[in-house]
Amino acid sequence: MQEHHYLGALPKISETLWYIAARADQWLALLSFSAAALKCAPRDRWIGWNFRHQYDRLKLLTNNSRFLILPDWHLPNLASRILSLCQKRLAADWQAAFGHPVVLLETFVDPRQFRGTIYKAANWLYVGDTKGFRRTRTGYSLTAGSPKMVFVKALTSDAQALLSRPILEPAYRTGEPKIMLSAQQMQSLPEFFADIPDPRRAQGRRHRLATVLAIAAGAILCGMRGYRAISDWAESLGQKARQRFGCRRQKSRYLVPSQSIIRDVLIRVEPLHLERALQRWNQCYAQQDESLAIDGKTMCNAIDAHGHQTHIMSVIGHQSKSCYTQKKSLACR
Fold first, then answer.
1. Using one digit for the tens of pLDDT, what is the confidence trace for 86-132?
2. Do residues 118 and 149 make contact, with C-beta atoms less than 8 angstroms apart?
3. How does the average pLDDT of the chain come out, rounded?
4. Alpha carbon distance, N-terminus to C-terminus of the chain
5. Which backbone phi and psi does 171 adopt, to 5 degrees?
């Protein structure tokens, strides 16, 4: 691949499968399927999924990141034949290797080099061109390069509807629900926590309460669980994201709160104030729920001095899975 592909070899990108097409011990072609692009406007428009759910469903996609027909084997129909054979077995191979299904393939074709003929011959669908920006270690390139043609191929007949529906079927869920935050959502989160009283002493405060709570809420929305995971997520934020959250600036750099500060704030802040702030944010940015589910739980070992056991009643949105309210009641044992 390094010797013959015009882009060279590609390192492993998250979940990756490699294929070799051979005939009588002779290698004919090399292919790799890797993690899907984080953002791709033509693909996202074709799927029609909500930005709220996109990040949580990217693992159901894979990118044909490399396809090389080796020298001396450029024969008519060979490339489309190899691609079709890969498509037939990819879903089963992916399930066996990574423990979850894949329902949609994507690829990018440089029009300066190719026309996407083999993908068209294998019944892939051209959905548009990229803007030419590329991923870098710090985010995306500042200037646009050469736009790429975007092709997709559904592995199931209902892939488009499946990826865009409000709630995924259990077989297609790949872990805890999580979302991707937009720049506007990052910037708005601290505003909803601005009126919450700060339980800390004024002396020694290094980070605003609204900033700490906004970062913690953003991390949890993106699937983080536990103080360490929230802190690691905060540390991974770029300088632009830290600025949007209102982080403290020192020597031209924005600093995020440490794990101990996040833990101290979340333990000491008034839960009712926090719940109300999150409900207001949810009303502004969450999708509308068509129906609600009411569920009751009895808290084990939660018994007061009079022998009353605690019951919690919750109202959950079917589509957004958001908790609209919780009520506590006491009952005799």
1. 999 999 999 999 888 999 999 999 988 888 898 999 999 999 998 87
2. no
3. 80
4. 70
5. -65, -20
In this structure, the number of other CB atoms found within 10 A of the CB of residue 236 comes to: 10
The CA distance from 267 to 253, in Å, is 28
3-state secondary structure of 255: strand
Give the whole-angstrom CA distance, residue 92 versus residue 255: 45
Please check whether residue 218 is in contact with residue 232, taking contact to mean a CB–CB distance below 8 angstroms.
Answer: no
Q: Report which residue type is found at 317.
A: G
User: How many other CB atoms sit within 10 Å of the CB of residue 92?
Assistant: 11
Residues 216 and 189: beta-carbon distance below 8 Å: no
Neighbours of 315 (CB within 10 A): 15
Name 319's Cβ contacts closer than 8 Å, sequence gap at least 6: 166, 167, 287, 288, 289, 290, 291
pTM above 0.70, yes or no: no
Strand partners, 308: 332
